[in-house]
Specification:
This protein is an alpha/beta fold. It folds into two domains: 5-67, no CATH class; 99-276, 2-Layer Sandwich (Nucleotidyltransferase, domain 5), CATH 3.30.420. It has helices at 5-8, 16-36, 42-51, 58-67, 145-159, 173-176, 178-186, 203-215, 225-240, 254-262, and strands at 99-100, 106-116, 119-128, 134-140, 166-169, 190-193, 275-276. The strands form two sheets. The protein has a five-stranded mixed beta sheet with strand order 4-3-2-5-6, with helices on both faces. The chain has a two-stranded antiparallel sheet with strand order 1-7. A hairpin with a 5-residue loop joins strand 3 and strand 4.
């Protein structure tokens, strides 16, 4: 018909007032998501909108968030909590390049610190590498083996893992101590440890702690230890495990992802969505 391609694909523009109203409604929904999850980026906000059956392109969400000054600005920094100067046995890294296909295949553990007005509080946490779900945690004002043992025992009580589950940690004294290793051996865990000074070998835990700091800790002013005891369990169980969308899980919360995995034949992840632990050197 000798029409230009642009003419063929042309669609009349909607009424400008209707367009503005639709964008205003969309901005309102974006603001509601950002209010509940202040550290969400535009891709995660887009996924949250689509879960509410709102069809929208991530580029439009980026534009609206930029225009409304809703884009989070993340500052990245490290803090060391690992003391590897000890005489206990060290174990090799067994999970490098491992394909994760089921729950309770690999548990990841680590410690981080939280600043309060009077000093520091320490958090030990354990994640299931398949679902990124926090399955055990403990909070204390003292950085010692009892802290990590409490988190481990919570995870064991809630998951009842079978023999052969890999427990991966750094080489810190809290994880290499005789008491902690005996607890792992008693429950038939296989012990794996990251190399000294290489946080990439426990990158999933580093990612969780980064999320915890940026989406909870840095947004609150903890007065004392009791504040931490009140806020952190709520964030871990009600926000991170239950609601927060995880990009590596197809923008699903960990609890929902675990339900999906358990509904699969043999409780294993489909091959096309298989997770792999990659390590940078």
């Amino acid at each position: 018909m000798k029409l230009a391609r642009s003419s063929y694909y042309y669609h009349p523009q909607a009424n400008s007032s209707e367009t503005k109203k639709a964008e205003a409604d969309l901005i309102g929904k974006i603001e509601a998501i950002c209010l509940e999850f202040p550290r969400y980026g535009y891709r995660r906000v887009t996924a949250a909108l689509k879960r509410d059956n709102i069809k929208v392109n991530h580029k439009k969400v980026l534009r609206l968030m930029r225009e409304s000054d809703l884009l989070c600005r993340v500052k990245r920094r490290w803090s060391k909590t690992t003391d590897s100067r000890h005489g206990y046995r060290r174990y090799p890294n067994l999970i490098k390049g491992m394909a994760i296909s089921r729950l309770n295949q690999v548990w990841l553990s680590d410690i981080t610190y939280i600043r309060i007005r009077t000093g520091f509080v320490y958090l030990a946490a354990i994640l299931d590498a398949c679902s990124r779900r926090v399955i055990g945690y403990a909070i204390s004002t003292r950085l010692e083996a009892g802290l990590t043992l409490e988190a481990l025992r919570m995870a064991i009580a809630s998951r009842h893992p079978g023999p052969g589950t890999i427990h991966h940690s750094d080489q810190g004294v809290q994880y290499a101590s005789s008491e902690y290793v005996e607890e792992l051996t008693r429950h038939d865990f296989v012990i794996s440890m990251a190399r000294t000074g290489n946080p990439y070998e426990n990158a999933m835990m580093e990612s969780f702690f980064k999320t915890l700091k940026y989406e909870e800790v840095n947004l609150c002013e903890y007065e004392d230890y009791q504040d931490v005891l009140t806020r952190l369990p709520y964030f871990i169980e009600e926000v991170y495990n239950q609601k927060r969308l995880h990009s590596a899980l197809g923008y699903r919360p960990p609890n929902e992802y675990e339900t999906m995995v358990l509904n699969q034949p043999n409780g294993e992840i489909p091959c096309q969505t298989l997770l792999t632990i990659s390590v940078q050197s």
